[in-house]
Amino acid sequence: MGSLLPIFARIMYSWNEKVPSYLVGKYQTIATVTFTALFCLAFLVVSVPFARGAWFDMRTLAIFALTVIFFFSGVLVVSLSRRFMYGYAKNNENMKMYQYVLWCLAEILALCVLYATMSYYGARNGILDGEIRFWQKFYASLSYALMGIGVPYLISGMYFNIIDKNNTIRLLNYANVVTDEVEKTLPEKKITLFDNSGVLKMSIDSSNLCYIESDDNYIKVWYLDSRGDLKQYMLRCRLKTVENSFADSDLMRCHRKYIVNMRKVSMLRKEKDGYEIDLDVESIPSIPISKTYEEAILSRFNSFQ
Known about the structure:
This protein is 49% helix and 20% strand.
C-alpha cells in the first residue's frame, strides 16, 4: 500500500498542473481530431458485428443513412469542441490538466447522448426495430465511446509527448574552445537553434538576441545583425521548448507569446493593464508581462540592478 502513495501523489500533482501546450496546439488539435475520426471508423467496422444491440450496418438504406449521419455528426461535435478548447487554452494561460481531462470526458458523454438520441429517433420513426429507451442506449454506448474516443486521445497525447521530449533547442557554451583571442571576463554564449526535425537553423551570440515571439507552432527570433539592424528569423518550433531549454539563462518567458533577453531590458514600467518591458533597441515596441510571469520577471530584473 505504501508503494502506491508516491504514484498517487504524482498523479494528484500533475492533475493540477498547467496543461502541456502540445495537447492543445493548433497542429496537435487538427491531428488529434483526424486520427480520432479514422480510429473510430476502424473501431466501428471491427467491433459492431460483435456488439449486442448496435444498429450500425447496411441492412437498409435508412439505417445506413442513420449510421453515416451519426458518424459525421460525431466528427462535427468533436471538431467544434476542440476548436473551442484551442481558443480557450490560447486565451487562458492557466488551463489545468484536470480541465483538459474533464473536457475530454464531456466530449465522450456528448457522443453518447448523440447516439442515444439517434437510437430513440430511429425507433420512433420505424427505422430501427423494437422499442428503444434513451438512457438504456446511453449507458450501453459508454464503454464503446471510451474505447473509440478515449484510446485515440491517449495515443495522440503520448505521441506528442514523445515529440515534445526531443530537445529541439540547445544552449551551447563555447567558453572552453581553444582560441588565440584575449580571454574575456565573461564567457561568450552561443544560442543554437534547431527546428522540430533536429536540423540546425541558427547560431547567434546571446548578446545579439533581443527577444523571441511565438507564432503558433513557429517562433520568430528577433536579433541584431553585424550592422546593428533589427532582423527576424522564423523557424518551426514551440515557445515552450525554448522556455524549458533556457531555464537557467538570461532568456525568460514574460508572456504566452514572448521570451525576452533580460540583458537587453532597459526599462520596466507599471501600466494600467500591468507591467511592460522596454528593450534597448528603439524600434522594438513595448513587450507586455502577464500575471503568470510577473513575479519571476520582477525578481530577475531587481537582481540586475
